[in-house]
Amino acid sequence: MEKNILLGHGSGGRLSHDLISNLFFKHFSNPVLAGQSDSALLKINTADIAFTTDSYVVDPVFFNGGNIGKLAVCGTVNDLAVSGAIPKYISAGFIIEEGFPYDDLETIVSTMAEEARNAGVIIATGDTKVVNKGQCDKLFINTSGIGILEEKYRPISSGETIQTGDGILINGSIADHGMTIMAARNFGNFTTDIKSDCAALNHMIREILDAGCRVKFMRDATRGGLATVLCELAEHNNLGIEVYEQHVFVRENVRGICELLGFDPFYVANEGKVVMVVAGNDAEKALQIMKQNESGKEASIIGTITGQPKGKAIMKTAIGGTRIIDMLAGEQLPRIC
Amino acid sequence: MEYIDEFRDAELVKMLVRKISSAAHKDIALMEVCGGHTWAIQKFGIPSLMPKEIRLLSGPGCPVCVTGRKYIDQAVAYSRLPEVIITTFGDLIRVPGSTSSLSLEKSKGADIRIVFSILDALKIARENPSKKVIFLGIGFEATASSSAAGVKKAFNEQLKNFYIFSSHKIMPPAMSALIDEGIKINGYIAPGHVSAVTGTKIYEEFPVKYNVGCVISGFEPVDILQSIYMLVQQVNEDRYSVEIQYKRVVPSEGNIKAQMLMAEVFALRDDWWRGLGILKNSGLQVSEKYAVHDAEKMIEVEVEKTIEEKGCICGEILKGLKKPSDCKLFGTACTNSNPVGACMVSHEGACNAYFRFNK
Amino acid sequence: MCLGIPSKIVSIDGDSAIVSVGGTEVEASIELLDDVKVGDFVLLHTGFAIQKISPEEAQETFEILKRLGEIEDELEAEVKSRKPN
Q: Whose CA is closest to A268, among A13, A9, A19?
């Protein structure tokens, strides 16, 4: 039935997966893409390089806690960092709708410069295009990034060294970013003080790696939220995952707006959260390092890798029940039922 | 959060589970008829806590699931009219019609907007006087009363470009139909928010006519478990009645103001329910007085012939006769990213809940 | 029927009110209710407050549950006291 691209194809859920497998992978098929990790891992001469790209089309472009430029830099820095790489260089391509205010563009660009400085990356190259009014929605940004990857961190992207007993950590509260955007779209006219969690995580991650914690896997929990990361991890690596709902922190004000709209926070996007699988004995140490970091003050150990059932992520609910965490079809929609 | 967290208390849950387990001496089938209950039961993992004697059935309480394809086909047809803005709850966007869906039409450029409330739809109508704004009214008595308030507001304001396309239905005819069909139900977990509007009187015939008790339940785990316990006790003591577990929200008379508004704005009609067929006086159409806001009467449109889904057993699932896993299409041709039947689309349809939480 | 959220009335303006759910505020219609005041909790459904929430009834529900739990403890104690050492 469906011949058009739907919003759901870009939402990070099952529809996105199907589009990638059936269209892109079919034509672009190669072993690097088959790895399906956040950063492409390359070997050039004697240096291992992590390479990633992402496009940012968020509406509205300004929101509580940041703007599209902050997302563009932090998002790409994080994609490199969660592969275990040290982010080095970023490219930035801009597609701007005719009539977009100059001052707004300047604010966004200066935010990007500041975030890049703080993260220690260089915006090494860029491009600008302007299109007629109506041909794009205000501003789109693409950033690609290159990082240096030590050989020993290669397995982090695939999670191939994960074992039963490894701990699963996240560096703080979930659903802040996605719900900030929902609120900012003026849907339902909500007044709220919730704020995007957008942040670069590379320094925190580097500290954990340098401290010798055996990190087996990392992924940033963006579109599709924490649940999607857990689900993909379980399915892709044929692992059993058990997560405790009570250990996953959701801020009160975020809970409120989730309840109002009927959203499940587990599936809502984050922009400053990394899900980390760490060897059982190192989990506590990694947690302490997270907590000492600005971006990890509310970190917690949320679950473990279990033996069974394979390929499934299970949640132990706050009341002691059990349910399977599955992927959403497309985007979450506000519901009445 | 107040009035939510206390009713998710793990200790209370454990205690209720123990009480239910020790009280359940024989096989008992309890049906909930509210999509919100289906969803809550699955989300909190309540089936995993029940003793084997208790069977929790999911009935036709999801308004999206029981709505026929014809409604979607007509909504799609309206959306193709250039002067129309469709306003709808998010629940309907992905429901498949015969050859299209609202989500597909939106991708082709139709003006379809998701709203939080009929009040948002009224606002859109005020802001777009040259457009016809059609609100897709789905839901049972709780939502219907809000729709009634919205339609009356439009009438009083003379908001001539606002219309409702009603698929509102009422619960009791479906609850009777299930028992009349022979579905074995020992008790109903009755919908808390419908009852907040209607009060207890709509359930009074069930203990009398059918020896089936109804416990009006809230939506938190403690609520649902306490309601299950109350129903088990009714069965054990062989005394059937309508009880309110959700006392903090539901008074026995319900909301009289809302009931009167509904009676004024809507009139009963026979309506088609997936799985149950046509039930007498089970649907709500806009009454004569408010006909100027009735999309069906005021806006002419050609609707394609309805093509029903083949192989989909949503009907039997809605009656609790079969489980989603019994359907040949479940998980293969019908998945939550490519739904065939409404039970899979709706966030709280039995198939969707089953697919996401149990597969 | 489904998504009904307990929300607190923060301010009232005629038939409209601002209600708060965990800190997020939204406008709601209170035209379906009589005698609502600031500080009351109401059940919010699709932008309308459809019922008031009664703190007394909520308390009573807990009393019933507490009593249920106590009966259980009493029974357990009785069973224990009957067991030989």
A: A13
- Based on its alpha-carbon atoms, the radius of gyration of chain A, rounded to whole angstroms, reads 19
> Using the beta-carbon criterion (under 8 Å), do B249 and C21 form an inter-chain contact?
no
Closest partner residue to C26 (CB to CB) among A189, A252, A337 is A189
Per-residue pLDDT, averaged over B104-129, amounts to 95
**Number of C-beta neighbours around residue B336 at 10 A:** 25
pLDDT confidence bin for B336, thresholds 50/70/90: low
Q: Which amino acid is at A271?
A: E
The region, left, alpha or beta by phi > 0 then psi within -120 to 50, assigned to residue B3 is left
Q: Which DSSP state fits A12? A: S
Contacts of C24 in chain A (CB under 8 A): 183, 190-192, 194, 253, 256-257, 260
Query: How confident is residue A1, by pLDDT bands cut at 50, 70 and 90?
Result: very low
- Flag whether residue A188 sits within 8 Å of chain C, measured between CB atoms: yes
Chains A and C: how many Cβ contacts under 8 Å?
49
How far does CA A105 lie from the centroid of its chain? 24
B75 phi/psi in degrees, rounded to 5: -60, -40
Using a CB-CB distance cutoff of 8 angstroms, which residues of chain C are in contact with residue B197?
A: 50-51
Q: Please name the residue of chain B whose CA is at the shortest distance from the CA of residue C75.
A: B19
Residue ranges and CATH numbers for the domains of chain A are 35-153 (3.30.1330.10), 159-325 (3.90.650.10)
- CATH class, domain B67-170+256-298, is alpha beta
Whether the CB-CB separation of A280 and A222 falls below 8 Å is answered with no
Judge: B1–C6 Cβ closer than 8 Å, yes or no: yes
Confidence at residue B313, expressed as pLDDT on a 0 to 100 scale:
74
Q: Phi/psi at A203 (nearest 5 deg)?
A: -65, -40
Cβ of A334 within 8 Å of Cβ of B114? The answer is yes
Distance CA C54, CA A280 (A): 48
Nearest to C23 among A252, A336, A337 (CB): A252
Angle, vertex CA B216, rays to CA B210 and CA B218, nearest 5: 150
Is residue B328 within 8 A of residue B309, CB to CB? The reply is: no
Distance CA(B353)–CA(A266), nearest Å, equals: 15
Phi and psi based region of residue A134 (left: phi greater than 0; alpha: psi -120 to 50; beta: remaining)? left
Rounded CA separation A153/A137 (Å): 39
Q: Is B93 on the interface with A (CB under 8 A)?
A: yes
Side chain identity, residue A221: A
- Find the length of chain A: 337
**pLDDT at C70 > cutoff 50:** yes
Question: pLDDT of B10-54, one tens digit each?
Answer: 889 999 999 999 999 899 999 998 888 988 888 888 988 999 999
Tens digits of residue pLDDT in B222-265? 999 999 999 999 999 999 999 999 999 999 999 999 999 999 99
Size of interface B-C (CB pairs under 8 A): 123
In this complex, the chains that touch C, judged by 3 or more CB pairs closer than 8 A, are A, B
The answer for residues whose C-beta is within 8 angstroms of residue A313's C-beta and 6 or more apart is A227, A230, A231, A233, A234, A241, A242, A243, A324, A325
| pTM, rounded to two decimals | 0.85
* Best mean pLDDT range from A14-18, B65-69, B129-133: B129-133
What is the three-class DSSP state of B162? strand
- Looking at the DSSP bridge assignments, the partners of residue B266 are B286
For A106-147, write each residue's pLDDT tens digit.
Answer: 889 889 989 999 999 988 877 788 888 888 899 999 999 999
The encoded tokens of residue A280 equal: 């059982």
A99 touches C: beta carbon within 8 Å? no
> How confident is the model over A193-233, as pLDDT tens digits?
999 999 999 999 999 999 999 999 999 999 899 999 999 99
pLDDT tens per residue, range A41-81: 666 666 789 999 999 999 999 999 999 999 999 999 999 99
Predicted confidence (pLDDT) at residue C15 exceeds the cutoff of 80:
yes
